[in-house]
Amino acid sequence: MLKFLLMMKFVIPLCFVEKMWWVVQNILYFMTFMFMCSFVLTSSISNLSYLLGCDLLSYGLILLSFWICSLMITASESVNRQNFHEGLFLFMVLFLMMMLYCTFSSLSLFSFYLFFEGSLIPTLLLILGWGYQPERLQAGVYLLFYTLFASLPLLVGLFSLYELYGSLHVMLVKADMMSILIYLGLIVAFLVKMPMFLVHLWLPKAHVEAPVSGSMILAGVLLKMGGYGLLRVYSMLSHLGVKMNFIWINISLIGGVLVSLICLRQTDLKALIAYSSVVHMGMVVGGIMTMTTWGFDMTYTLMLAHGLCSSGLFCLANITYERLGSRSLLINKGLMNFMPSMALWWFLLSSSNMAAPPSLNLMGEVGLLNCLVSWCWWSMLMLMLMSFFSAAYSLYLYSFSQHGMFYSGVYSCSSGFVREYLLLMLHWLPLNILILKGDICLLWL
């Protein structure tokens, strides 16, 4: 595991050399390919090196982090074109990539906490440094205080575990906690990071103000850190989890329906995609909280699927924003006339967002529907509404942006760059090919 960390470290000087944008980008893609080929799919922890190791759960999320960070640089060509501190931007992406890599491969819960919080710093700097509007300062404060306020109890909970067991190693701490305070301390930080309904207000603000790279990493990987933390922590919270989890499932399902209704009233492209992430993460929280094998496996599947799908939609929103200078659906109308070659990508990614076949989202959502209905058949009502409104706001996003009269009344046509088509293909292809090997996610348990 250390060899990839060293490779990232030695790429950092290249970031500050002139005209090295494409070199750094290609090295990141090559590193992703190397990591993909270096892992043997087993349920046990492998590739051990000091406090780092990797099992199947870590492997999928590290690979997703590498992939999204590489695509972030491809999507942020405007930073390179305008010479807007591109060296510093590349350094931030690499620093974030190192933090995510260390978070997902940590075998000690304390080092996991350290890197979990450390990933906040480059994300905040990306939003503050390369965001679009002055409101990005307020969005940064929201992100910082929501996350830090919730994560302090997690630190206290980890210290309590260490006092009880004398170790914070992932494989050694197999506790069955009976203290409600420790239970809350260990899970609240992850619920805010997901984010669960009621603690989700930082997410739309951060997405709307972030540059495209910030939105991609937030939707693609940072939301998954909450799910990853919950999957790790619930192995030691089974006793209290069985008693208390109905609270979080109810909040998530009711919140999912309410946020779906909010999506139907959005006029901002990025805000709509951000709120749809809250709906999907609501289903993920529900799946984890059932504490069933089916729930855990399908949670993992949907996290990977949502990371690729949501990131691709933010790329599309940014491509439109670069042409028209606005994210408003009132202005972004008739894009089928303005950018006819992009209409297919809007359709493919919008349909994946509503879990249409053959996307990996379908497998994840069907599995989560199954495990939640088997947990309590009353949840079928909320799940039915969530599925319906999910289709409704995805169709709303597609039809409002692609159809209608182009706002300027001028007959013009804009083609995308090859880089943009490649970027969208690299989001959509893994999303629809991974379902062919969907049984792999069952190995990690």
Largest sheet descriptor: 2 strands, antiparallel
Global geometry: globular
Helix and strand content put the structural class at mainly alpha
Mean pLDDT: 89
Please give the alpha-carbon distance between the first and last residues: 22 Å
**Rg, alpha carbons:** 21 Å
**Element order: H for helix, E for strand:** HHEEHHHHHHHHHHHHHHHHH
- Count of DSSP-assigned helices: 19
Count of distinct structural domains? 1
| Biggest sheet: strand arrangement | 1-2
| Low-confidence segments | none
Number of strands: 2
Strand content: under 5%
Protein name: NADH-ubiquinone oxidoreductase chain 4
Family: Belongs to the complex I subunit 4 family.
Catalytic activity: a ubiquinone + NADH + 5 H(+)(in) = a ubiquinol + NAD(+) + 4 H(+)(out)
Transmembrane segments: 27-50, 56-75, 87-107, 113-132, 139-160, 180-203, 215-234, 246-264, 271-294, 300-321, 342-360, 372-398
